[in-house]
Prior knowledge:
The protein is an alpha+beta fold. The protein is built from 20 helices and 21 strands. The protein has 4 domains: 12-90, no CATH class; 113-315, no CATH class; 341-478 and 596-672, Alpha/Beta hydrolase fold, catalytic domain (Rossmann fold), CATH 3.40.50.1820; 483-570, no CATH class.
Amino acid sequence: GGTFLPNPTWTPLFQHHLVTVHPLGGCCMAADAQHGVVNHKGQVFSGKAGEVYEGLYVSDGSILSRSLAVNPFLTISALAERNVALAAKDRGWAIDYKLPSQPPAPKPAPTMGLQFTETMRGFFTTAVKAGDTTADYQKAWEQGKAADSKFHFTLTVISDDLDLLLENPAHPAKMVGTVTAPALSPQPLTVTEGQFNLFIIDPDEVNTRRMEYRMKLTSEAGKTFFFHGYKVVRSDEAGLDSWTDTTTLYVTVHGGTDADAPVFGKGRLHIKPIDFAKQMTTMQVTNAPNLRRRLEGMARFGQYFGGSLWNTYGGLGRRETVFDPSAPPRQKRPLRADDPEIHFFKTSDNVELRLTRFKGGDKGPVMLSHGLGVSSLIFTIDTINTNLVEYLFAHGYDVWCLDFRASIELPDAAKAQSTGEDVATKDYPAAVAKIREVTGADSIQAVVHCWGSTTFFMAMLSGLQGVRSFVASQIATHIKAPVMTKLKTGLHVPAFLQKIGVPSLNAYVDKNHDWQNKLFDATLKVYPTELDELCDSPVCRRIAFMYAPLYEHKQLNDATHRAMHEMFGIANMRSFEHIGRLVNTGHLVSFDGKDIYLPNIERLNLPICFIHGKENACFQPESTKITYELLREKFGPAQYNRHVIPNYGHIDCIFGKNAHLDVYPHILESLERTPA
Length: 676
């Protein structure tokens, strides 16, 4: 054996730092085979004398007889080059050292990545295996807590591509870490094949995002489990106490390598929103070429990460859900109707309007008329399973969607100021005449909504011909408004705004709107709204200010809520001023306040159906009740019917997610009573 000699530099003076030296030797150079393996040229000896094998060379570090300590590679390389030069000289070869060398291909710039660490804690049980409702996970949590079966993890979320993490709708990342769960293993389990999705949008819920966790767990004994968990991050209906909420991870563990394995147990873990902020301190941006890029990457992720939470939990200060004009168009589903016909026509004052025809059969024809600040899109919106056009088309109706002069789809809508008389005495006569001209029908039916209904009653009371029956949605000849609407009209808000140079109000917003609109939106954040209808969307807030809360959010699906900017837009102040005069008077009057309509009540001696949402916060249900009872008293009950729709507001009677079940059948029933 040898004698151990400690490295002289391995001392307390140098803090016992290790010093390593590459071991060399094994085929040492020597004068002959008796003392080594190769000669000074690297040629291998073939015997005990100096003879060598022809063409057999050794040129690596093994030919050195001892360790060289610092930088042995330079010496090894020098000897190798010398051996090659001598081999070439022995054979009379000339090496052209002037040949150009090919520069190495540039390496692609590494993508910036990101990682952060998260810890969650809760309880788990093997006694609950079935079900995926919150009640099932609550039961699992309770049983786990009663048995003190704790479950917690510490995971590091890793993304090698920050752009992919932020811009891909799945927001994918990897996970590594450990899970401590005595119900699975007495020792911590190792996480492998972890897949993480951060704040993906839940298509089935409004203002809701999900976080998905999928990973394989391996115990020290080699047993494998598959972990699947998800969080549902949503705001409270009121939104004011949402920072006290907890974010909950619903956990299912399978006894195998994937989600197809039998369920081993369930549990529930928790993290409070404030803990998300703590996670930010663990955030690291990787592969950044410099400090500036690293800070930019952190800012991008922080804006998304914090912004998503703020969007969900921020109450009055949450991030806006606004339309992005640079985003690609929304992919729309095809309507269950034949291709439409477009018919342009002009009114007596030379305003060009539009009718869109969906010929589902020979019933009707039926004209659909929208409200103020919207368009006929409210009848054809594709975000619900069945819209009104599809419903009537399927029942054999020849459907005509009118865009009158207040439609946001018409080019001059932003500039034109119009009153109810303009629509009643110019638009409707021209529209009805056009439909009768094209179809050859003696008369039409109509479904009219809001301002479209108000002005249609004005038209009928002004002597409009060619209408045999109609359905009036939300308003008729009399108006009962809530306190806030009365307050706005009592203060003459529309007239005041017009006098200070605000010709219109616009429900459409985008992230590039000017400072005046941004100030307007900031003001609307504190506009009084019922607690159960608070919403983070500036479109919703503008709608509430312009009219009132027009829908019950629970009657909308998420796709419709996100498409509000498509359906709502500009509305002119002159129309608002006329509406204000109607509200203050309590019944139909002209723009200048003259009682020119109700004296002609006999012109409403025809079948009329009234539809009203019970929760309508714009025009109270009593509004249509007054008209309904007045007409029944004057002309008898046979021609009139009225339906108050429970749990519906105003325009959700038109595009609510279940309107085809709760509202449309009443419309159809009324139309069927008066066939051509």
